[in-house]
């Protein structure tokens, strides 16, 4: 599970930190970990269980935050 009690409350940044910490722990800049993405994905499921409400789905009656970003890649895809 990922979370933050910092001033920014930026979950995207928290995911980035988890990803980079994994690379550092492995001493391998090419290391890839699906664990940091899975931690981010599992947050809604865990929060739903803790708070007893639907979180993380775009369905009627569910609590939801939607984040839309304009992705500007540093190199062409």
- Overall tally of domains: 1
Strand content: under 5%
Q: Approximately how much helix is present in the residues?
A: 40-55%
The biggest beta sheet, please?
A: none
Which shape, going by the Cα principal axes?
globular
Radius of gyration: 15 Å
Distance between the termini: 30 Å
Q: Tally the beta strands.
A: 0
| Uncertain stretches | none
The quaternary state of the protein chains shown equals single chain
SSE order: HH
Mean pLDDT metric = 77
What's the total helix number? 2
Structural class by secondary-structure content: mainly alpha
InterPro entries: Amidohydro-rel, Metal-dep_hydrolase_composite
Domain Amidohydrolase-related: 1-71
Protein name: Amidohydrolase-related domain-containing protein
GO molecular function, one term: hydrolase activity, acting on carbon-nitrogen (but not peptide) bonds
Task: Give the helix/strand layout.
Elements: H1 11-26, H2 34-51
Helix pairs in contact: 1-2
Describe what you observe in this structure.
By secondary structure, the chain is mostly helical. The protein has one domain. The protein contains 2 helices and no strands.
Give a quick set of tags describing it.
77 residues, mainly alpha
Quick take:
It is built from 2 helices and no strands. With 77 residues, it is an all-alpha fold. The mean pLDDT is 77.
